[in-house]
Amino acid sequence: MTATSTAIAFAGAVKTFGAVRAVDGIDLEIASGETVALLGRNGAGKSTTISLLLGLNEPDEGTVRLFGAAPSDAVRTGRVGAMLQEARAVPRVTVRELVAFVAGRYPAPLPVTEALELAGITELAGRRVDRLSGGQTQRVRFAVALAGNPALIVLDEPTAALDVEARHAFWASMRGYARRGHTVLFSTHHLEEADAFADRIVVVDHGRIVADGTGEQLRRSAGGSLVAVDAAGRDTAGFGLLPGVRSVEVRAGQARLRTDDSDATVIALARLGAIRGLTVAPASLDDAFLALTAQQSPQVTSSVPEAV
Questions:
Q1: 200-205 and 35-39 as β-strands: parallel, antiparallel, unpaired?
Q2: What's the rounded mean pLDDT across residues 14-31?
Q3: Domain 220-293 has what CATH class?
Q4: Which of 130, 174, 196, 295 is the most exposed place for a label (fewest CB within 10 A)?
Q5: Which residues are within 8 A (CB) of 25 and not within 5 positions of it... i.e. 6 or more apart?
Q6: In terms of CATH architecture, what is 6-213?
C-alpha cells in the first residue's frame, strides 16, 4: 500500500507496562475505506493497541502511523474520530449544543445536522444529553466522534451494554458512515457483529496478531466443519487421530471434532460404531476464535474457555 492509500500502519509496535508486554510486535496495515474488527479476550492487548493508534500512548519500540503521519497529528487535524468505552454525559446541554461545540474545535467539521442524521439522532437534537437512555447516549457519542468529519473512526466496544434494538440502530448508523468510503476500526466482544459488519477480522492474543482475514477465512482456519457425537461411555482418546480431525473437545457428554474433511471423519466414526447423536455443521466464528486463542495444544480436553 502507498502512504496515501493506507489509513493505519503498525510496524513492530511494542508497548510494555512493567513486566507485561501488552502489545508485542504488532505489524498491521489497514487500507482507506476498509471496515476492520479487532477481536481478543480481555487482556489480549486490544485497548492498548487502540491507545497507541490514537496517540494516547507511545510505543516503546516500532512505529504507528495514521495516513502517513503521527497519530497525534491525525487526531489534531480531525482525520480521526474516536468513540471510547469510558465517557460521561455532559450535564445541562442539549445534543445539538454538544455536537456543535465539538465540531467547532476542528478545521473542516461535518455540518451538525449531517452528523446528527448519520448517527440517527436528529429527533434527539433538542434533548438534554444527561436525560437520554443508554442506547441514545451511545449514538450521541457516535455523532460526537463524527463531528470533525474524520476519514477514520475508531470504536472501542461501541455496543457494550446495549440491548438488541439499540445495537441494530447503532450498526445501521455505522454502515451509513462506512458507505461514504470512510475507514472504520472497531473492537467488540460480539463475534456476530464482527462477522456481519467487518471486511476483515484481526484477532489479537497476548499482544500479538494471531489471525487476520475475513470471517470465512477464520472459520476455515478452525477446521471446515464441526462433527459432534455422543461420547457417553466411550473412549475418545483416539478421535484426534481420525482423518481430517484438527482438534477434539469433550463437553457435556459430547465429543466435538473440528475437521477439515467432515465426510472422511464421519466415515471413520461409522467404522468405529461411534455415530450416536451425530451432527455435522460448519465451523462458527466462535469456534475459530476459541481455536485461535486456546492455550492448550489441539488434543482432547474436558473444557474450553468461554467465548468473549
A1: parallel
A2: 96
A3: alpha beta
A4: 295
A5: 12, 13, 14, 61, 62, 207, 208
A6: 3-Layer(aba) Sandwich (3.40)
**8 Å CB contact between 246 and 223:** yes
What is the C-alpha radius of gyration for the chain, rounded to an integer number of angstroms? 23
Say how many CA atoms lie within 13 Å of 101 toward its Cβ. 7
Q: Which residues contact 95 (CB under 8 A, 6 or more apart)?
A: 116, 121, 124, 125, 126, 127, 128, 129, 132, 140, 143
pLDDT band at residue 4 using 50, 70 and 90 as cut-offs: low
**Is 0.85 surpassed by the pTM of this model?**
no
Which residue is it, cell 443508554? 134
Q: What's the CA gap between 264 and 154, in Å, rounded?
A: 44
CA 188 – CA 162 distance, rounded (Å): 12
Mean pLDDT, residues 51-74: 96
The model's confidence at residue 223, banded by pLDDT at 50, 70 and 90, is low
